[in-house]
Amino acid sequence: MSKVISISNHKGGVGKTTSAINIGAGLNRLGKKVLLIDLDPQANLSQSLGLINQDKNIYGAIRGEYKLQPVEVLKGLDVIPSTLDLSGAEVELSGEAGREYILKELIDPIKKHYDYVIIDSPPSLGLLTINSFTASDEIYIPLQAQYLAIQGLTKLVEVIDKIKKRLNKGLKIGGVFITQYDSRKILNRDVVDTIKGHFKNDVFKTMIRDNVALAEAPTQGTDIFRYQIKSKGAEDYLALCKEIIKNK
Ligand SMILES: Nc1ncnc2c1ncn2[C@@H]1O[C@H](COP(=O)(O)OP(=O)(O)OP(=O)(O)O)[C@@H](O)[C@H]1O
Ligand SMILES: [Mg+2]
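A: This is the predicted complex of the input protein with magnesium ion.
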């Protein structure tokens, strides 16, 4: 059985893309077949894996020009790249019937080839994110260990509840995890307590520490495991992946 996961938080820069790539690569290291979908017009995930200006991308597929065309990055790790043109999709599709289901219709026929399909969502709650939630079994929310981390999350939870009611009954929050954690900062520790108080058992035990190697890996077009296997980033994302597999 395959599982479709949206990595989402409408707050920008919280580690969605870094997490999508490294959770994907980590699950792949643990023997799982993974498809990463870049659903962000910024195309950061694609660029971070060295996939720039790919002819067949998520935008053309969403427009109905072709089916999803996975690009193999590693054995058992495929990617559907994005393109800046995707920014036009929200407006172009706004009048289309069944517009919330477009991504689901694209993923459904191919998901059986994968253990996990992981969608990197844009930092907004527009039609692309709604498509992502409609196509998903679970949503994972990365939260930066910073003041105001959970401010604005009420809006996200509201949108998730509406999608559950109207478009995707089975959808659930698969979990919240903390990123860019620095144990030396007292504020970070306070924020973690607040997050745990708020989300209780939905918080993954693994926290992703602040680690410069995680920011460097994309500049080499690669994931943290191929870039620096002995880094804290590699250790943390692998631990998170083990939790994800265990929770299945
Ligand atoms: N644990 C970490 N340690 C250090 N740097 C990190 C870590 N996680 C992410 N970063 C860096 O922080 C920045 C934002 O991360 P990322 O692009 O993954 O966030 P995002 O939520 O996808 O952003 P956007 O909302 O723009 O899509 C990037 O430069 C990334 O390299
Ligand atoms: Mg991103």
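The mean pLDDT is 96. Residues 12-18, 40, 42, 44, 123, 179-180, 208, 210-212, 214-215 surround adenosine-5'-triphosphate (ligand 1) (CB under 6 Å).
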